[in-house]
Amino acid sequence: MWSTRSRDTGVRPGGGSDLTVVPAWTSALAVTVALLGMGWYALVRGVRVPLLGLFDLGIHELGHLVSYPLPVPRIVEAVAGSAAQILVPLGLALYFARVVGDRDGRQGAAFCAGWAASSMVDVSVYVADAPHQRLTLIGGHHDWAYILGPRGLNHLDWAGSIAGGLRTTALGIWLVSLAVVAGPPLLGRLAPSGED
Question: According to the model, what pLDDT value does residue 6 have?
Fold first, then answer.
């Protein structure tokens, strides 16, 4: 399996043509549109991103499942779902940025960081609901009501601050993601061509 391709010729290192080569602006546009969509749903409307929200839910529940056999306090098990929901896309963003590198890596990292931002907003809604417990939950137990409640940290009054911090962090990550993917093509078009 080959992993390097020529951006100019579309020829694989072993010969033959690579039909997956696309111009930089095309993939940047696709990722930018995806980020704008994630931002619209998560940051503007404050709702789960369609389809992506289902992945978030699965990863959240997997975080709990992985923590159950570990010898950790119950509060860690409760945090594990939300932590996994945010850390998995952040880990993928780091992978793309550090391992893949180049344009594809930057765009993959930006997409995954934008996903992490939308997931943070989802977790912020969950945290903010802890004092009220109005959300419909699949397991019936409210992790953040436990974490911040009398059997956990006994600070339900922190819910609003934690939720606000998550939303602010999410906005910052989303803006950086958007700049990473949309900035280079825009700056490239605005820069003087050097031709007289």
Answer: 42
